[in-house]
Amino acid sequence: MREYAEEVKRHLTDNARVLEVAPGPGYFSIRLAKMGNYNITGMDISADFVAICKTNAQREKVNINVVQGNVSAMDFEDNTFDFVFCSAAFKNCKEPVTALREMHRVLKNNGTALIVDMNHDVSKEKLAAEAAKISKTGFERWFMRHTFKVLCRGAYSKNELENMVQQTLFKQSEIKEAGIGFYLLTK
Ligand SMILES: C[S@@+](CC[C@H](N)C(=O)[O-])C[C@H]1O[C@@H](n2cnc3c(N)ncnc32)[C@H](O)[C@@H]1O
Fold first, then answer.
1. What's the CA-to-centroid distance between 156 and ligand 1, angstroms?
2. CATH number of 2-118+156-186
3. How far apart are alpha carbons 39 and 19 in whole angstroms?
4. Of 49, 90, 99, 120, which one's alpha carbon is 20 to 30 angstroms from that of 155?
5. Is the pTM of this model over 0.70?
6. Start and end residues for every CATH 3.40.50.150 domain found in the chain
7. From first to last of its 187 residues, what are the pLDDT tens digits of the chain?
């Protein structure tokens, strides 16, 4: 989350309006809120995660506006945000092109979206390396490799992402593969 927040901060100016789509417990938004003077909104489909995110933000003494909603039909005006961020959730979107179009709609004209998620086409070697990074025992390594493999199989490939972005009004996009995932930066 620290790496993601540092990446996003590079694109922001003081008082920037940031939307985190699907924040879950809110770790990214909390981290970003501590890094600058931003106006941050988190929007999650799950009422439980909305409550958890609010509690976590209060505990960390940061001001984040947390609301419930679906990325496929967001309850925000057009041209509202300077930046939209989404991590580990895009693969869960039932209507990914609609979700991208919604992100574009709520972004201001010069706004940017960063989507970080797992990569469907990840190699066996990268899965093993990622599992090794966070595992202490042989069993843990096997278990994490298997878990990552299942998650990556359910995620999109670079080609699929490129194809989806082409069906939206985003004009520029860059997909960077990183470890077992990707960064999709689009304007
Ligand atoms: C694996 S969690 C990721 C949470 C957080 N972004 C992170 O990286 O820790 C996936 C989140 O996506 C949310 N989610 C799934 N579908 C959604 C949708 N259509 N609109 C908004 N949130 C959604 C879930 O409720 C959950 O909080």
1. 16
2. 3.40.50.150
3. 9
4. 49
5. yes
6. 2-118+156-186
7. 999 999 999 999 999 999 999 999 999 999 999 999 999 999 999 999 999 999 999 999 999 999 999 999 999 999 999 999 999 999 988 899 999 999 999 999 989 999 999 999 999 999 999 999 888 899 999 999 999 999 999 999 999 999 999 999 999 999 999 899 999 999 9
Question: Are the C-beta atoms of residues 146 and 182 closer than 8 Å to each other?
Answer: no
Question: Whose alpha carbon is nearest atom 9 of ligand 1?
Answer: 24
Look-up of token digits 């580990």: 88
Is the CB of residue 95 less than 8 Å from the CB of residue 71? no
Q: Which atom of ligand 1 is nearest to the CA of 49?
A: 27
- In angstroms, the CA 25 to CA 53 distance is 5
